[in-house]
Amino acid sequence: MNSPEEINAPPNSLLRNRFLQTIILSSILLQIGIWVRNFAILLYVAEQTNNDPYAISLISVAEFAPIFVFSFIGGTFADRWRPKRTMIGCDLLSAVSVFVVLLTIHYGSWESVYLVAFISAILSQFSQPSSMKLFKQHVPESQMQQGMALFQSLIATFMVLGPMLGTFIYSRYDLEASIAVMGVAFLLSALVLVRLPKDTQEPRPAAVKGQFLRELAEGFQYVWQSQVLRMLGLAFLLAGLAVGVGQTLNLFIVTEQLGKEKEFLQYMLMVSGIAMLIGGGIVAAFAKRVSPQLLLAIGMISGAVCTIIIGYSTSVPLTLSVQFINGLMFPCVHIGISTMILKWANASIVGRVNGVLNPLFTGMMVLSMSFAGTLKNAFSVEIIYSGSGLLFLIGALAMVPIMRQKAPPAEQAQAAL
């Protein structure tokens, strides 16, 4: 629970919050490790397999497949375990696994590189919902949206700097050095997390037979009984479908619509990352004046319009300008979703709510990625991007019935359990 001092804290006290300071520093270290890992694995596998598409696609499978299986489980356990201890333990286990895999790679089994992404993805499904629980406990409700905006800005910063950092370390040194950097980053993150406030939640007794499944089912029931969370789930699903297709076919926007070489894609991504960084800052400044439902709707309407324009544009300046606007508004989607989860879910079940909703986005994104190639063979880029824009628009319309709803008091949210 938030203390009276936290509840009455002025907005400019956000960065003085010890919890936020610690989590942000930990996130910076984790982002360094993740981006170095992503590009080291990508470039290494491409070299080892001579750019084999199947081998390269397995990287995404290793990163995203654990989300389907472990997000529900991780969210349920996050509600049972002490969150601080869980986060520190996950970072330590990630670091240990990295160094073990590093040894296997050193002695000749290069395929073990996939395990780095796979194990890290599994552990993140336990750590991330625990972070959400602590966020709800230690950040005043009036500052939640601003806090989410800070994290969005951090992610956007690494979208710009991460690829350069990962490529530089791998090119300057080698795979083993890159993997070692990741391991050290996770170790340092675990050390930083020691600064988190002491856990106030006692771990629950060991589950009796059937109790775990009952608690898992409670997460689905809680989401289904809340109109706001149901609509949020629908928006999550539609956004995942739209984003997956767009990410997969961006290369065809570059080569077919703009007539550029495939290397031009990095400039589009850089423009989007810079815009997201700026957009996160803008949302942080005005977050308290806008409801998270409206914020999400604005982001999805912007995504709809920008996606359609990008699909039809053959002008480089127009495409880059619209890409910038889209990146500027995209933080509204992320911040709106995260804030709604935190405000409408009781602290005792926020891990399970996150575990139910998060796979909807990722699952639909991976699903749409998998059939994007088939769609490209059957339809033009313009039609496909128009369809993606329509999905964003429908997601925005899903917010209309809940636009004026206020988050329930803590006791009311608890009663829904």
Structure description:
- By secondary structure, the chain is mainly α.
- 80% of the residues lie in helices and 0% in strands.
- It folds into two domains: 15-197, Growth Hormone, Chain: A, CATH 1.20.1250.20; 215-415, Growth Hormone, Chain: A (Up-down Bundle), CATH 1.20.1250.
- The two termini are 18 Å apart.
- 47% of the residues are buried.
> How would you state the average pLDDT, rounded?
79
Q: What overall form do the CA principal axes indicate?
A: globular
Order of helices and strands: HHHHHHHHHHHHHHH
Largest β-sheet summary: none
**Within the CATH hierarchy, at the fold level, what is the topology of the largest domain?**
Growth Hormone, Chain: A
Instruction: State the fourth-level CATH superfamily of the largest domain.
Output: MFS general substrate transporter like domains
Q: Give the helix level as a range of percent.
A: over 70%
Domain unit count: 2
Classify the beta-strand content into a percent band: under 5%
Number of strands: 0
What is the gyration radius calculated from CA atoms? 21 Å
Number of helices: 15
- Tell me the distance between the termini: 18 Å
CATH architecture of the largest domain: Up-down Bundle
CATH class annotation of the largest domain: Mainly Alpha
Low-pLDDT runs of 5+ residues are: 1-11, 411-417
* Computed structural class: mainly alpha
